[in-house]
Write a structure and sequence with these properties.
The protein has 372 residues and is an alpha+beta fold. The protein is built from eight helices and 14 strands. The strands form two sheets. Strands 1-14-3-6-5-4-7-2 form an eight-stranded antiparallel beta sheet, with no helix packed on it. Strands 8-9-12-11-10-13 form a six-stranded antiparallel beta barrel. The chain starts with a helix and ends with a strand.
Length: 372
């Protein structure tokens, strides 16, 4: 498949749709109707691909995509200006309060960051294509003119842009918590593997904050969060923000820095300031001994060493993987010279080869997401 075929492919159109949606959202703080935006993209793809085919010009897929974004931005900008002139109510600041959207484009085989001088170069290439196209035959010119008119026939979006320019972007959140992992197979707390149940093609996702056990700030002044789908890896730096009861809140300063992952199977890792795995300890704690407490219904247990067991207080929760591989919760009754727990269902034999998860040593990663 040639570059033009790759450029016109459904996969690349999806990539362009995602990048264009983000560009419009960042630059104009709004979300354009999907059908309208797709029609604009398809029309511009048709014009540029025909230009390339007719004059036999060789360009890379990255250049074609960036040129497409430039033409989309020009078209949307004209519509916004038209809406502003017609209504005199559009806040001009909202139309320019974001940095050049091409700098936020996905950095892979489809896009690369575009600097100011590179943007000028791409615009010059677009102008050269148009000049060469004008020199083609009358039949060619008629064909292209017809396609240009197709864009002109795209439904007027000025009114829609004006209505949406003041519309707030609705963001939702979801939380990944470490105690929901398979903690027997993944005992190290700082390493997680999850399948994310959100459509990555139609939503923009960004990490917001991490709730970590209070001892974490004694381990490192900042945390490196790494998220990968085994295709692309993105990293964020988090700093301590404030105490939030039994957990501390850590935030990052890299705003407008969403995830560009395509696979829903994520691997999440936390590292300290030395890029070593953050020493949050391990679950899969072995139960070595168990006996019945004096009241005849609670259990006195002895576990293998886990340095953060001291965090558990009366009425806190632990999770137990029993001999039959079931996961049961139990309440802490006492944690000083003896570790006593209560569960009205478990029997003493259930603790044979059992494992424990320390709930007070877990953490929670909060993400925001919004549709595009």
């Amino acid at each position: 498949m040639g570059v033009v075929d790759d450029y016109k492919s459904v996969k690349n159109r999806d990539v362009l749709y995602g990048a264009a949606s983000k560009m419009i959202r960042d630059k104009y703080n709004m979300v354009l109707n999907e059908d309208v935006l797709l029609k604009i993209i398809n029309n511009i793809i048709g014009i540029i691909s025909n230009d390339i085919a007719l004059i036999n010009t060789s360009l890379k897929l990255i250049e074609l995509n960036n040129m497409t974004l430039i033409k989309i931005k020009e078209y949307i900008g004209k519509q916004v200006d038209a809406a502003a002139n017609a209504t005199k109510q559009v806040d001009a600041a909202s139309a320019v309060n974001a940095t050049n959207a091409t700098k936020h484009v996905k950095q892979d085989t489809y896009f690369q960051p575009v600097l100011e001088e590179e943007t000028d170069e791409l615009i010059q290439k677009l102008q050269e294509l148009e000049e060469k196209r004008k020199m083609a035959s009358t039949f060619v010119n008629e064909t292209i003119i017809e396609e240009v008119q197709t864009i002109a026939q795209t439904p007027d979006i000025s009114e829609q842009l004006y209505k949406m320019s003041k519309k707030p972007v609705v963001k939702k959140i979801f939380v990944i918590n470490s105690h929901n992992r398979d903690w027997v197979k993944q005992p190290q707390r700082s390493m997680l593997q999850f399948n994310i149940g959100i459509d990555l093609k139609t939503n923009v996702i960004e990490p917001l904050k991490i709730l970590l056990p209070v001892f974490t700030k004694e381990l490192t002044p900042y945390i490196n969060l790494s998220i990968t789908d085994d295709i692309k890896t993105q990293k964020y730096v988090f700093f301590f923000h404030k105490n939030n009861g039994e957990w501390d809140e850590w935030i990052h300063e890299q705003t407008n820095n969403p995830l560009y992952l395509t696979n829903n199977n994520w691997k999440i890792s936390l590292y300290d300031c030395f890029n070593a795995p953050l020493a949050l300890g391990n679950d899969d704690i072995n139960v070595l001994e168990v006996s019945t407490a004096e009241n005849g219904k609670d259990f006195v247990i002895k576990t293998s060493h886990e340095e953060y067991m001291y965090l558990l207080k009366k009425y806190d929760t632990i999770y137990i993987k029993t001999f039959s591989n079931d996961i049961d919760a139990a309440k802490v009754v006492q944690n000083d010279d003896k570790f006593i727990i209560r569960n009205d269902v478990l029997k003493q034999e259930d603790f044979i080869n059992s494992k424990i998860l320390n709930w007070k040593a877990q953490y929670y990663i909060v993400f925001s997401y919004q549709s595009i």
